[in-house]
UniProtKB/TrEMBL annotation:
<dbReference type="GO" id="GO:0005737">
    <property type="term" value="C:cytoplasm"/>
</dbReference>
<feature type="region of interest" description="Disordered">
    <location>
        <begin position="1"/>
        <end position="20"/>
    </location>
</feature>
<dbReference type="Pfam" id="PF10312">
    <property type="entry name" value="Cactin_mid"/>
</dbReference>
<dbReference type="GO" id="GO:0005681">
    <property type="term" value="C:spliceosomal complex"/>
</dbReference>
<feature type="domain" description="Splicing factor cactin central">
    <location>
        <begin position="85"/>
        <end position="180"/>
    </location>
</feature>
<dbReference type="GO" id="GO:0045292">
    <property type="term" value="P:mRNA cis splicing, via spliceosome"/>
</dbReference>
<keyword id="KW-0175">Coiled coil</keyword>
<protein>
    <recommendedName>
        <fullName>Splicing factor cactin central domain-containing protein</fullName>
    </recommendedName>
</protein>
<dbReference type="InterPro" id="IPR018816">
    <property type="entry name" value="Cactin_central"/>
</dbReference>
<feature type="coiled-coil region">
    <location>
        <begin position="49"/>
        <end position="93"/>
    </location>
</feature>
Length: 180
C-alpha cells in the first residue's frame, strides 16, 4: 500500500473521516490477549510484510480462480448453445424428412385416385407399371411410350415427378432402377 493514499483516498480527504487512514492498523487488544494467553506474537515490520504478501497472494489466487470460473462458465454456456442448435437442427431434419414422406405418400394417393377416375397423367402410368400391376385398366406395354406426344410443360412436370420418386422411392433396388 502506498503511504500517502489508500484506494485513492488520503488522510485529509476520505469519506470515512479517518485521519489515520494511511497508517497501518494494529489490533492491540488481540495482541494483548495473545500475550496474556502465552502465545508468541511477532509484531515486527518484517512479519507484517510477510503477512501482507500472503494476503495479497491469496487475493490473487481468488481473482485467478474467479476468472477461471468465468471462462469455464462461458465455455459451458457456449457448449450448451451448440448442443441446443444441434438438437434443433436434428429435429428440423426429422420434420423435413417426414414432410417429404408425407408429400410422397400424397402423390401416390393422388395418382391412385386419378387412375380410378380415368384422369391419368404420365406419372400415373409409370407408377401403375411399377406398383399397381393389374389393379387398374390402364395398359401400356413399354413405359417409355408415355413420353410420346407430351408438350414441353408436361415433359417438365413429368421430369419433376420422376425426380421426386427417384429421391424418395427407395423401398427396393427395383424401384430405384426403374426410376433411374
Amino acid at each position: 500500500m502506498k503511504a500517502n493514499a489508500v484506494s485513492g483516498y488520503s488522510n485529509d480527504s476520505n469519506p470515512f473521516g479517518d485521519p489515520n487512514l494511511t497508517e497501518n492498523f494494529v489490533w492491540r487488544k488481540k495482541i494483548d490477549r495473545a500475550v496474556t494467553e502465552g502465545q508468541k506474537v511477532d509484531i515486527s515490520v518484517k512479519a507484517e510484510k510477510k503477512r501482507q504478501r500472503e494476503r495479497m497472494a491469496e487475493i490473487e489466487k481468488v481473482k485467478k480462480r474467479r476468472e477461471e470460473r468465468a471462462i469455464e462458465k462461458a465455455q459451458h454456456e457456449e457448449e450448451m448453445a451448440l448442443l441446443a442448435r444441434e438438437r434443433a437442427r436434428a429435429e428440423f431434419q426429422d420434420w423435413e424428412k417426414k414432410e417429404e414422406e408425407f408429400h410422397f405418400d400424397q402423390s401416390k394417393f393422388r395418382s391412385e385416385i386419378r387412375l380410378r377416375e380415368g384422369r391419368t397423367k404420365p406419372i400415373d402410368v409409370l407408377l401403375k407399371n411399377l406398383n399397381f400391376a393389374d389393379e387398374f385398366d390402364v395398359e401400356l406395354n413399354e413405359p417409355y411410350l408415355v413420353f410420346k406426344g407430351l408438350t414441353v410443360k408436361e415433359m417438365e412436370e413429368l421430369h419433376d415427378d420422376i425426380k421426386m420418386h427417384l429421391d424418395l422411392d427407395r423401398e427396393s433396388q427395383v424401384n430405384v432402377k426403374y426410376w433411374e
